[in-house]
Design a protein that fits this description.
mainly alpha
C-alpha cells in the first residue's frame, strides 16, 4: 500500500441527503470535471511517489543492511502528525480542502528538490534522506484530512464508495507503474533522476486550483474541537469499530517493510549484483491487486455485510503471508521463490486495499457534519501512528530473527481474528454503520 494515500482534501460539507433532486443533479455535473482532474492528478502524484519510496527504501537498505532502518522512512513521515492534528483541523476549517491540496502540492515540490540537489552533488546519504522524509511528514501532518474532505465534496451523490474505489484503483495502478519504473530508472540512471521525476509529478496537483474558489462551508452552531474526537468515538460504536479495524489492517500491511530484505535474499541466492529490479517487482505486486478494488466495491455495495468482507480480507492476507513465510523458509530456487512471492502478493494487496477503502468510506460517510474535519483528521492519524510502529516492530523482528519469523508473527494473529470475528460486538456495529452510510 502506498503509505501516503491518506493526504488529499475538501470543501462543501452539505450532506447529499439534504439536497433536492435538482440540486443533486447540478452538483453532479458541476464537479464532474473535477472528479476527472482529481483522479488524473492523484494518479500522477502517486506515480512519482512510488518511484521515490522505492528508490529511498532500496538506497537505505543497501547502505545499512537493516530492515528496521528501512522502516524509519515511515517513522519520519508519520511521527510529526502526532503533534499536529489540532493545527490540521484548524487549517482545513479556515481555508478549505482544495486550498490545502494545492498548497501541499507546491510546498512538496520545493521540498523534493532537496534530495535532487543532494544526489546530483554526491551528498545523498541515509541521514539527510531521512531528514527529507521528516520534512514531508510535517507537511503531511498539516494536511492530514485533505483526501477524505475533497473526495466527499466532489463525489457524485450516493456514489462515495465507488469514488473511493476509483481513487484506490488510480493509486494502485500508479504505484505499480511507479515502482517498476523506479527500479528501472534507479538501475540505469541513478537516484538523482528518480527524485527529479518525483518532483515533477507533483505539478498536476494544481489542476484542482479552480476548486479553491468554492466557498469554505460555514457550519452553524458550535464546532467541536479536535479533542472532542475521542468522545465522538466513544459514543459511536460504528466509528469505533472502523478505527479499530483500520488499525489492525494497517499493522498487517506493515509486512511491506520486509520486501527489500526479501529481494536481497533472492538476489544473493541468484548471485545478482543488484536487487533493485527484484524489489520493485515485489513492491509492485503488493499493490497491483488494488486495480480490482473498484469492481469489488461495486459488487459488494449494498449487497454484502462489511463484517463478512472484513473476515474474508483478513483471511486472504493472513493466508498469503503464511505461504510466503513457508516458501522463503524452504530451500528452493530463487526463481521459484520470486515467482510464488509475486503471485501471492497480488491477492494480499487486493484484500488489504479493499478493506481500507471500505473503512475509509464508512468513516467519511458516518462522521458527524459539524465535526467532520476533526474526525477525519483523527482517522488519518491511525495509519500515521500504527504504520511506523508496525514497520519498526516487524523490522526489528526480521533483523533479530528472520523474515520468515516476522511474517508468521503478523499472519497468525490475523487468522485468529478471522476465527473470533463473528463473536466481536464491533463487527455488528460496523454493519450497522454500513447500513446507515449506504441508505
Amino acid at each position: 500500500m502506498s503509505f501516503r494515500a491518506s493526504i488529499r482534501h475538501h470543501s462543501t460539507e452539505l450532506d447529499h441527503s439534504d439536497l433536492t433532486g435538482t440540486q443533486v443533479g447540478r452538483d453532479h455535473e458541476r464537479f464532474a470535471s473535477m472528479r476527472r482532474n482529481y483522479l488524473v492528478s492523484l494518479f500522477i502524484l502517486e506515480l512519482g511517489w512510488a518511484m521515490i519510496t522505492m528508490a529511498s527504501s532500496f538506497f537505505i537498505y543497501a547502505q545499512s543492511g537493516s530492515v528496521a532502518a528501512t522502516g524509519l522512512i515511515v517513522v519520519c513521515l508519520n511521527l510529526p502528525s502526532l503533534v499536529l492534528p489540532g493545527a490540521a483541523t484548524s487549517l482545513a476549517r479556515r481555508f478549505g480542502g482544495p486550498t490545502i491540496w494545492v498548497m501541499q502540492a507546491g510546498v512538496e515540490f520545493m521540498i523534493t528538490l532537496i534530495p535532487v540537489a543532494l544526489s546530483a552533488m554526491g551528498h545523498l546519504n541515509t541521514t539527510n534522506l531521512l531528514m527529507f522524509f521528516l520534512l514531508l511528514g510535517i507537511l503531511i501532518g498539516l494536511c492530514a484530512p485533505s483526501a477524505g474532505l475533497v473526495r466527499r465534496m466532489i463525489a457524485a451523490p450516493g456514489q462515495l464508495p465507488e469514488f473511493n474505489g476509483q481513487a484506490a484503483q488510480a493509486v494502485a495502478l500508479a504505484t505499480v507503474i511507479g515502482l517498476l519504473a523506479g527500479g528501472a530508472v534507479y538501475t540505469t540512471l541513478g537516484p538523482t533522476w528518480v527524485f527529479a521525476l518525483g518532483a515533477l509529478s507533483l505539478l498536476p496537483g494544481f489542476s484542482l486550483l479552480r476548486l479553491t474558489k468554492e466557498p469554505v462551508p460555514h457550519i452553524d452552531g458550535e464546532v467541536e474541537r479536535f479533542r472532542g474526537v475521542f468522545e465522538i468515538r466513544r459514543n459511536n460504536p460504528g466509528l469505533r469499530a472502523v478505527c479499530m479495524f483500520t488499525g489492525l489492517s494497517v499493522i498487517i500491511a506493515s509486512y511491506v517493510v520486509t520486501l527489500p530484505a526479501l529481494a536481497q535474499m533472492i538476489a544473493d541466492d541468484a548471485k545478482m549484483d543488484s536487487s533493485a529490479g527484484i524489489q520493485s517487482l515485489l513492491q509492485a505486486s503488493s499493490v497491483v491487486g488494488g486495480l480490482f478494488v473498484v469492481m469489488a466495491m461495486r459488487k459488494a455495495h449494498g449487497r454484502v455485510s462489511w463484517g463478512l468482507v472484513q473476515r474474508i480480507c483478513f483471511l486472504i492476507a493472513a493466508s498469503g503471508l503464511l505461504l510466503i513465510a513457508v516458501i522463503v523458509h524452504r530451500d528452493v530456487s530463487p526463481l521459484i521463490v520470486m515467482s510464488l512471492a509475486v503471485l501471492l502478493l497480488i491477492p494480499i494487496g487486493f484484500a488489504l486495499t479493499l478493506d481500507q477503502s471500505i473503512l475509509a468510506t464508512l468513516m467519511q460517510a458516518g462522521a458527524p457534519a459539524k465535526s467532520r474535519a476533526s474526525v477525519l483528521t483523527g482517522y488519518a492519524l491511525i495509519p500515521m501512528i500504527l504504520a511506523p510502529v508496525g514497520q519498526e516492530a516487524i523490522g526489528i523482528m526480521a533483523d533479530q530473527f528472520s523474515v520468515t519469523s516476522a511474517l508468521i508473527i503478523i499472519a497468525v494473529p490475523a487468522l485468529l481474528l478471522v476465527l473470533v470475528g463473528p463473536h466481536l460486538n464491533l463487527r455488528k456495529a460496523l454493519d450497522e454503520l454500513s447500513d446507515e452510510a449506504t441508505d
